[in-house]
Structures are given as structure tokens and as C-alpha cells.
Amino acid sequence: MLFRYNRCRLSAVLIFLVCFTILPLTPPALLAADPVTELNAAPPAMPDNEETRKLMEQTLSSAEIEREITRISAEQQTLEARVSVLEKQAESQKAAIAEERERAGAIVRSYYMGDRDGLLTAVLSAKSIGRLLALYDYYEIVIGRDRDILSQYEKEYKKLKTTLAAAQRSSQELAELKTALEEQKARVTALNAEIEGGIQGSSDPESMSALLEEFTKYWENIGIHEVRTYFKALSSAMKNLPQFVQSHDGMLTRKGMTYNLALKEADLNEFLVAQNSLFKDFAFHFNDNEITATGKSGGLSLTLTGHYTIQNDPVNALMFHVDEVVFNGLKLPDTTRKALEEDFDLGFYPEKIISFLRATDVSSAAGVLHVKLALSF
Predict the structure, then answer these.
(1) pTM value surpassing 0.70
(2) E strands present in the chain
């Protein structure tokens, strides 16, 4: 009886230990949460103090320039590898056509010196049709072989020139990248020194340093991804804008051989909301040759300022240029603006409305974007 009781107690203890080992101590809901999101769900409070705001803006710029340095460094490594491959290809091609060059040179010299004239004379002086045909066949073989050698040399020479030109372009790009990298490194070093001076000059350096660190983490973990989300959504929506213009009577009018597109900001904003609910609290405004877009979502705010220009090469288009991006009241650096402009196409392509239309002029005023278009056949 006692043995059975002890055995039961031992079994209960073992079951408890197994459960303790296997089951998590943390509630499942917390395990499912993204720790970064949990810690950085709300942006740091934006201070009213102008000096602190300036430090936060500089810190944001420093973080973005560091990103640019990383991008340039990676691109530099790719280009260095490409230059190396192209240079090896060029050396290999040079060696391969050395013999071809000698053979081609000998053929050119033979024609210049008249060495082939005797063969042609022999053909023309043949005494019989049979000998004429035999000599002519031989002449065709010799001349055909000469032509093949010269053609092969020309083909290999052009291939070598193409490789050398590509290597030269890549080397030039590499040199420009190295210069850009050095400039950005010097820029971030100076900026960090300025930030450090601002921190030490504040009333509470430790708290200021903690605030800037918190803001940097928030930007890198959430901020930049939110900004890119808006740009990605805009880029996707703009691809469907030509169909929207086509489906709205009176938006595109014709006068003789020219067309005029008058896109009201209210129509554009309606179109954007229909494309993506993200734009419910986002609106475009057409001012005097300046376009602004503002949006807010929870604790995030974004203001975008830019303008359109006409591009004709490689295709005719209205290209949007990002002049300024303000995130939560802080201006983003030029490196971020350039990256956003390069990564996301916010352009408008008239040929997608009608294939033979091309934009010739663009302007904006009083809530309307005006585009002049001409026929192009």
C-alpha cells in the first residue's frame, strides 16, 4: 500500500517537472508580438525646443548618410569585381586576336602589294572553259578564305572594343563612387562631431543622448519603412492614373492638333483613396508649380514636396522630382530624397492614355495640374 502511494507521488512529481519544462512561462500573446514593434510602437515625443529638434534632425541625417555609405560600399565592391572581370576578358580577347591580326594584316598587305593580281590574271588568261572554271573556283576559294579571315578579325576586334569600353565605363563609375564615398564619410564625421557638441552643450547630456538614441532606433525600425510604404503605394497607384484619366470625361480635351489635360487635386485624391485605403488621410495639393502631399497615420506624419518636369529620353514622360520630405516634423536628408526618387517611380506616361501623345509642357496652379500634349507619329 505504502509502495503504491510512493509510486503515485513520484509519478505526479515527474508529470509536474515535464509540464514545467515544456510549457512557456511567457503568455502566448507576448511571444507572438514583434519585440521591436512593442518597444517602438509610438514615436518619441517631438520637443518644442528648437535646438533639440535640430539635433534630432541631424541625428536622422547621420543615420541616413550611414545607410548611403553602406549602399555605396556594396556598389563599389560589385563594380570592383566587374572591372576585374572585364579587364581579364579584355586581356584574353587581346591574346585571342593576336594571331587573327597577323593573318588579317598579311592579307591586307597582299592586296596592297598586288600579290592577288597574278591569280586574277591567271583566271582571265585561261585557254579553255574547263581551265577557266577550275581557276575561277580556286580564285573563289582563296578570296572567300581571305574574306572570312578579315570578317572574323573585324568581329573579334569589335568585341574587344566593346569590352574595353565597358571596362572604362565601369572604372569611371568606380572612381566616381570612391569620391562619393569619401565625401559622405567626411560629411557624416563632421555631422557626428556637431551632434556630439550639441549633446554636451545641452542641460542634460545623458538624457539628450538617450533621446537621440531612442529616436534613431525608432527611425531605423519603423520610420523609414513607413515612408517607403507610402512611396511604394504611390508608385503603384500612379501606374493606373492613365486609365483614370481616360475614364473621366472632360479631363482630357482636344483643340486642333493639341490636347490639354487638367487634373484637379480633388480628382487625384479621390483616385488615390480608391487605389489604396492608406491614402484616406493623405492628400495632394497643386500650388504654383509646386506639388505637396501630406498624410498622417497615428503618431506618424509625412509631408512630401516636389515638382514635375518633362522627360523625352528614353520615353516621353512627366517625371516627379522629390524636393523635400518631412517626417514627423523633421526634414529628411538629401540622400534619402534621392534614394526615394530613384527607387519609386511617381512619373506619368502620356502614351499610356493614347499611344501617339507626348507631353510638351507641365504646370500647376490653384489646385489643378495642367499638361499640354501634342501628337507624335
Answers:
(1) no
(2) 252-255, 258-264, 282-287, 290-297, 300-311, 317-327, 330-331, 357-365, 368-375
